[in-house]
Amino acid sequence: MDLSAITRPAPRVPLVATLARVGLGLALVGAGVSHLTVSREEFQAQVPSWFPVDEDVTVLASGAVEIVLGASLVVLTRWRVAVGLVAAAFFVVIFPGNVGQWLEHKDGFGLDTDAKRFGRLFFQPVLMAWALWSTGALRALRDARSRD
């Protein structure tokens, strides 16, 4: 697979994809800021009990990562394919926290039943797809694979 597609200037994408990318970026910045401020305790509910790092440290670190990723989605347009791949990977990495919240029956953000916590699990793949599609990363990966 020709991975230079990831580091080349990103190809043009439709306006709707650009708006979706900026929207995702702003949402990540907002979520990251709330990690560090008003929603710290709510986010701590998403840290699985088995995770070896202190809950507050985990929430602060993931909040900082979300702010950087979100800002990168908005301003690093030349690198949006690479940023989209990193954002999708981030959503994969934090998915065990969502599973842990469901399995450990932890309330947070209005997710106060197992059904609500379980339903939320299906939103994570949507976020991954959103990151890949809106940045052109999905198309870049397809193009790289077709060159083989």
Summarize the structure in words.
- 72% of the residues lie in helices and 0% in strands.
- The chain has helices spanning 4-7, 15-36, 40-44, 55-75, 80-103, 114-121, 123-134, 137-146.
- α2 (15-36) crosses α7 and α4 (55-75) runs antiparallel to α5.
- The mean pLDDT is 91.
- With 148 residues, the protein is mainly α.
- The protein has eight helices and no strands.
- The protein has one domain (14-138).
- The longest helix has 24 residues, at 80-103.
Features:
transmembrane helix; elongated; DoxX family membrane protein; mainly alpha; 148 residues
Short summary:
The protein has helices spanning 4-7, 15-36, 40-44, 55-75, 80-103, 114-121, 123-134, 137-146. It is mainly alpha-helical and 148 residues long.
What radius of gyration results from the CA coordinates? Answer: 16 Å
Number of strands: 0
Oligomer: single chain
Terminus-to-terminus distance: 6 Å
Major beta-sheet overview: none
Given as residue ranges, the uncertain stretches (5+ residues, pLDDT < 50) are none
Beta fraction of the residues? under 5%
Q: So what's the overall shape?
A: elongated
The helix content is over 70%
**Count of individual domains:** 1
- Write down the secondary-structure element order: HHHHHHHH
Secondary-structure content class: mainly alpha
**Mean pLDDT score:** 91
With helices defined by DSSP (H or I, 4 residues minimum), what is the helix count?
8
